Amino acid sequence: MDCYTANWNPLGDSAFYRKYELYSMDWDLKEELRDCLVAAAPYGGPIALLRNPWRKEKPASVRPVLDIYSASGMPLASLPWKSGPVVSLGWSAEEELLCVQEDGVVLVYGLHGDFRRHFSMGNEVLQNRVLDARIFHTEFGSGVAILTGAHRFTLSANVGDLKLRRMPEVPGLQSAPSCWTTLCQDRVAHVLLAVGPDLYLLDHAACSTVTPPGLAPGVSSFLQMAVSFTYRHLALFTDTGYIWMGTASLKEKLCEFNCNIRAPPKQMVWCSRPRSKEKAVVVAWEKRLMVVGDAPESIQYKQLTIQVLLDRLVLRRLYPLAIQICEYLRLPEVQGVSRILAHWACYKVQQKDVSDEDVARAINQKLGDTPGVSYSDIAARAYGCGRTELAIKLLEYEPRSGEQVPLLLKMKRSKLALSKAIESGDTDLVFTVLLHLKNELNRGDFFMTLRNQPMALSLYRQFCKHQELETLKDLYNQDDNHQELGSFHIRASYAAEERIEGRVAALQTAADAFYKAKNEFAAKATEDQMRLLRLQRRLEDELGGQFLDLSLHDTVTTLILGGHNKRAEQLARDFRIPDKRLWWLKLTALAALEDWEELEKFSKSKKSPIGYLPFVEICMKQHNKYEAKKYASRVGPEQKVKALLLVGDVAQAADVAIERRNEAELSLVLSHCTGATDGVTADKIQRARAQAQKK
Amino acid sequence: MAAHLSYGRVNLNVLREAVRRELREFLDKCAGSKAIVWDEYLTGPFGLIAQYSLLKEHEVEKMFTLKASRLPAADVKNIIFFVRPRLELMDIIAENVLSEDRRGPARDFHILFVPRRSLLCEQRLKDLGVLGSFIHREEYSLDLIPFDGDLLSMESEGAFKQVANMMIRMKREFTGSQNSVFPVFDNLLLLDRNVDLLTPLATQLTYEGLIDEIYGIQNSYVKLPPEKFAPKKQGDGGKDLPTEAKKLQLNSAEELYAEIRDKNFNAVGSVLSKKAKVISAAFEERHNAKTVGEIKQFVSQLPHMQAARGSLANHTSIAELIKDVTTSEDFFDKLTVEQEFMSGIDTDKVNGYIEDCIAQKHSLIKVLRLVCLQSVCNSGLKQKVLDYYKREILQTYGYEHILTLHNLEKAGLLKPQIGGRNNYPTIRKTLRLWMDDVNEQNPTDISYVYSGYAPLSVRLAQLLARPGWRSIEEVLRILPGPHFEERQPLPTGLQKKRQPGENRVTLIFFLGGVTFAEVAALRFLSQLEDGEIRASFSQ
């Protein structure tokens, strides 16, 4: 039975360990690993190696080579490194290799060494260079953290949606921290760094000092720190040879171990078996490996989901296998087959030896109208490979015109983009394309393009109305739209011009435009307004008070209220105010002045075109029954009853109504018979009614 | 609880729950304390779906109104802008963000576009150099809530044809990406407001319509003069009269309102007095309650009775306020003129009442509504008549209204008659738009909502249901714009057998707004035809 224990060695008093090889690496390394930058992807993903000639002082004689191997050392890609010095390598969650250059530029490669894109970590990084960099994983994706030569940190928590965050300064930090790491708490990325005996936590708002609970005294420096894959746990290695293990929140200590080695370790990482509840830290020195453990770990590992498995197959170009799995699992098309076909198509467009036509046809044949396939995504990939024509062909298969637009714009096919945007009916897209076109074309060409697209033109006018008034004018001019041009100048006469001369001039331009538009009414009205403005100005000069911007009606009213009856008359004549309205106007103004004498004179000046009921009404409104009665007698028979009721003469109203034998008037009077003395009148009406019925 | 939304066959509460969930999810994405900066326009619509308590539960500590320059100080981690996608608002946001950046400790900014994210706006933020400051930029589709989007409107004639085309295309675009669902609606009727410009010009005469005409209903709330709502028991008479407007929410969750909202106003009084008797009788019951059990029973009903009494008091006050208006001589005169126009009397000459209104400088809106009504009921005004009105309006209300008039002409509300032909009488007769024998108390036809005039839009919907538009093709040709019908085949799996007695459900979509009276008429129709019609509208 001793074969089971043969390869176990004692560890301390109560534990044993063994060592065995899972598999051997297939690779044939030319370099010493120690001379290379190495990055291994999580979950048994690929391994990248880049011989690092920049670390040594001597100039590189040969170009460094970037090699990518599978986890078992099968070569996947090998390419000469042509860009700048690399500080750090790392794999993203999507198995993209991120290479952080000294100048802060991050180059992104695929599993097969295919260049994907690059981005910069910002100006500050460019200026101060990258001192150190880390690629880390969060629930949002993969992030990059940079320590610059100025000892400042910049990070992006998700390189898929790049947002750079410059972390706050550590007060008084003169040299690089002895060690640092990124943490992820409450869905936010932080940086933990050690300077001498102090630990600092940087979130994006502040820098705070933190102290690990239960840390043995005497520490004057932290040599190494490691955070677990789930960001739950943290291990610190001190210059006193202690290893502190606890929660990453630094709120709880799990255990502490004195290893009696004071030399700085080369590496320290958390490790554990899958589904194990025990967590342990492995510390490595040049010639020594130590496992420190016993932290209960309660979380369950998230399994690789089927989606991730499929993604991995796709990344390794094993499309048929992936499709078979989808079919076997009966995954919905959108999540399964469609997605894999789309990936296949994206790979297909990279086959440069096949003609655009053939690629487009092959893709369309296989994908057809498969729901959930985004032709625009495939087209974007084609464009990324420099195949613009192929991209345009592929876009034709895209049913959602809205999706076509951004790519067409990127490919500088703005006019095509415009018609697609219009087709989509998404006004926001149309505006976006229009503004693009406006910057791209000269004004003349831009206007011509608009002319051929009536809907775009009308939308653009709307835009200009809010944003660019001057352009609006040019547009109307181009279209000979004199009516709108006239309106434009009228608006300007109110909004843009302050001086009276300027306003009149703007109105003149408007009037000219209206004449051109054959809108005689508007032209004449505008000329009247110019006349009125000048006149109001003169009135202000001569009489004082405020006249400008009053309507004609109100100007005349103001004159009467100010006692300038002659001027009022003159103005009314000049502007041909209709008689009826002038009577209403005068009546209202004189009553407001309570100038009863003048009102009576006015009422007798000629026969009133509005009758005399309004006189009665307005006097009553001013509570002058005495005056009201004067006019009540002059009200014509049609409205007499109403007038008499208004002045409270119920008896006489009854008489008139009886005389006129008007049933409606009789009921009206009856409804007014509410006073104590009205009983007689009411009887009278009832009698008259009765008589009328007899007949 | 939003009980008023779960009535009827189509449960709109599901929709409300969905938008609430979406809001919660967004708020939780921005971890930590937050302040919301509101585009003021949105506070109304948002009030319909989320109370402050919901926001508070998700760590919203401060609320501000979006204003130029700096934000008020707030010690929060996140600042979230809830805005419509409008360029002028982007400028203000940029100003806010930049001044906040100068202030000190960095905050997280987020932006929630309602109802759509906009590339145009994001471009503007980018140009202003603040786009990168926003961690989350998302959209929140409050589509079924009225939304003013003049900048984003299609600005195109026959917009409804485009809408229909787009819907057909969208169906193709979305196949596969959505789970197949059983359709809730059987028919969809898209109505362009241009087809029926007449109805919105006429004074609505239903209870709800009149509240809207006189006080305006916004997002189901109305603000009323407070005097009538003052508490009755007051020691020092008049001193403590409330000065702030009384704000009331109006919806069918209130039993009494559900009963009277769609009635002709003249039929409301009798309902209110009947209700008053029932309620006071119910309160009298307490004298009859002798045993402990009876008293307990009475007490358990008390809250409901008190609510009913409060509701009755409110609506009695509102009815009194409205009655003051409707019994005035001027209201009567105006209505007479409207009804003359709509029944085709004297539409071709200058109207004396309108003239007098102008001369007395009545409200410009009132005058314009009448002039436009006359124009629509005459297929445009004779040039001389039109010019006379226009001149009178400019001289009285000010020359600047030449722009107002021009806009009305562009909208087709005001126009010269072309070719001297008046089509309105044909339309009126064929569609029976004017009914002389209207019964306001116990209506038999939709015309009760305007006391004689049957809203054209609703008449079209009615005729579409029975006997179909083929019978009125001649009139459809006269009405503005094209008309068309489109059938959408259902996948076999989704066809359902109609149960006996189960009727078709029609969704009616008004492109360009709808009046309360039209909605009342539609509800009336749905009872009459024993089918259900849901009205929804866009602008």
UniProtKB/TrEMBL annotation, chain A:
Entry's localization field: Late endosome membrane; Lysosome membrane
Domain Vps16 N-terminal residue range list: 4-302
GO term, biological process aspect, one: intracellular protein transport
One of the record's GO molecular function terms: actin binding
Residues covered by the Vps16 C-terminal domain: 373-691
Cellular component GO terms held in the UniProt record: early endosome; HOPS complex; late endosome membrane; lysosomal membrane
Position of the signal peptide: none
Topology in the lipid bilayer: Peripheral membrane protein
Subunit structure: Core component of at least two putative endosomal tethering complexes, the homotypic fusion and vacuole protein sorting (HOPS) complex and the class C core vacuole/endosome tethering (CORVET) complex. Their common core is composed of the class C Vps proteins VPS11, VPS16, VPS18 and VPS33A, which in HOPS further associates with VPS39 and VPS41 and in CORVET with VPS8 and TGFBRAP1. Interacts with RAB5C. Interacts with STX17, MON1B. Associates with adapter protein complex 3 (AP-3) and clathrin:AP-3 complexes.
Similarity comment: Belongs to the VPS16 family.
PANTHER family xrefs: VACUOLAR PROTEIN SORTING VPS16 (PTHR12811), VACUOLAR PROTEIN SORTING-ASSOCIATED PROTEIN 16 HOMOLOG (PTHR12811:SF0)
Protein name (Swiss-Prot/TrEMBL): Vacuolar protein sorting-associated protein 16 homolog
Organism of this sequence: Pipistrellus kuhlii (Kuhl's pipistrelle)
UniProtKB/TrEMBL annotation, chain B:
Main location class: cytoplasm
Coiled-coil region list: none
Transmembrane segments: none
Superkingdom of origin: Eukaryota
Membrane topology of this protein: Peripheral membrane protein
Gene Ontology biological-process annotations: protein transport; vesicle-mediated transport
Secreted among keywords: no
Record SUPFAM superfamilies: Sec1/munc18-like (SM) proteins
Keywords, in A-Z order: Membrane, Protein transport, Transport
Signal peptide: none
Subcellular localization: Cytoplasmic vesicle, Clathrin-coated vesicle; Late endosome membrane; Lysosome membrane
Pfam families: Sec1
Cellular component per GO, a single term: lysosomal membrane
PANTHER family: VESICLE PROTEIN SORTING-ASSOCIATED
Family designation: Belongs to the STXBP/unc-18/SEC1 family.
Name the record gives this protein: VPS33A core subunit of CORVET and HOPS complexes
Source species: Pipistrellus kuhlii
